[in-house]
Design goal:
The protein has seven helices and ten strands. By secondary structure, the chain is of the alpha/beta class. The protein has a domain of 63 residues. The protein has a six-stranded mixed sheet with strand order 6-7-8-3-9-10, with helices on both faces.
Length: 241
C-alpha cells in the first residue's frame, strides 16, 4: 500500500532559483526511505514541506490516499498524521520524560502512560521516565525524541538528521535500535541525512538529491555501488540543508 505520493513538486524562495525541481516520490507502507545529499541540496526543505511546515510552490502531496497539499489547499502539520524528529531533539524541558512522550497521544491518561512506557522500554530509557531532559545524556534524549514522535502512531515518521549531534559510538548503536523498532512495528519512515552511513544502514531505499533534483534512487546496495563508482563523498558535510 502506498502511504506517501509526491507528484511534480517544485519550490523556491527566490523566483528563478529553484530549491526543489520536479520531485516525484512514492513511499510504501513499512518502508524506510533515506534522502541523502550535500548541504543546500533541498533535502531538509523537502522534509519540511511534507510535514506542512512550509508550502510548496506547486505540486501534489498525498498521505494515506488523502491530498494534504496541492494548488488549492494545504492541511496544517497536526492534521497530516506525521511524526517529526529533528536534530536538536527539542524536548520540553519542564516536562518529565514520560510526560514528553505522552504529550501528543490522544487517549485517556492510563492509556497514554501505557503507550509511553512501552515506547520508552523499546528504546531502553524507561528507567528515566520521571527524570527531566537535562538529567539524561544526549543519546538518551534522542531516544526519547524518537519515542515521542512515534507515540501518536503517525502514518509517516519524518527524521531530520536524527543522529547528527551524537558521537560515532552512540550513532552506530542508535541506528541499530531505531531501525529494529521501525521494522518490528512496521512504521513508515523518511530519514534526511548528509551521512552516507545513516542512509545505507537504516534504509530500504535511498534517494540522492543534488541541487534540488533527484539524481539517483535505488536500494541501499544500488546506491552504495553508484557512490563507489563515482567516488561521491558526503562524509565531510555537516551543515543542514
Amino acid at each position: 500500500m502506498t502511504i506517501l505520493e509526491i507528484k511534480n513538486l517544485n519550490h523556491y524562495y527566490i523566483k528563478g532559483k529553484p530549491v526543489l525541481n520536479n520531485i516525484d516520490i512514492d513511499l510504501e507502507e513499512g518502508e524506510i526511505l533515506s534522502i541523502l545529499g550535500p548541504s543546500g541540496c533541498g533535502k531538509t526543505t523537502l522534509l519540511r514541506i511534507i510535514a506542512g511546515l512550509e508550502k510548496e510552490k506547486n505540486g501534489i502531496i498525498q498521505i494515506n490516499n488523502r491530498i494534504v497539499s496541492d494548488h488549492f489547499h494545504t492541511l496544517p502539520t497536526e492534521k497530516r498524521d506525521v511524526g517529526l524528529v529533528v536534530q536538536e531533539r527539542a524536548l520540553f524541558p519542564h516536562m518529565s520524560i514520560i510526560k514528553n512522550v505522552m504529550f501528543g497521544i490522544k487517549f485517556n491518561k492510563a492509556k497514554k502512560q501505557e503507550i509511553a512506557m512501552n515506547l520508552l522500554r523499546l528504546f531502553e530509557v524507561d528507567k528515566y521516565a520521571h527524570n527531566f531532559p537535562n538529567e539524561i545524556s544526549s543519546g538518551e534524549q534522542q531516544r526519547v525524541a524518537i519515542a515521542r514522535a512515534m507515540a501518536p502512531n503517525p502514518k509517516i515518521l519524518l527524521m531530520d538528521e536524527p543522529f547528527g549531534t551524537l558521537d560515532h559510538s552512540l550513532t552506530h548503536q542508535l541506528r541499530i535500535e531505531t531501525k529494529k523498532v521501525l521494522k518490528d512495528n512496521k512504521i513508515t519512515a523518511i530519514i534526511v541525512s548528509h551521512d552516507f552511513d545513516d542512509a545505507i544502514s537504516m534504509s530500504d531505499r535511498v534517494i540522492v538529491i543534488e541541487e534540488g533534483i533527484i539524481k539517483q534512487q535505488g536500494t541501499a546496495k544500488d546506491i552504495t555501488n553508484i557512490v563507489r563508482e563515482k567516488s561521491l563523498d558526503f562524509s565531510s558535510i555537516s551543515e543542514k540543508s
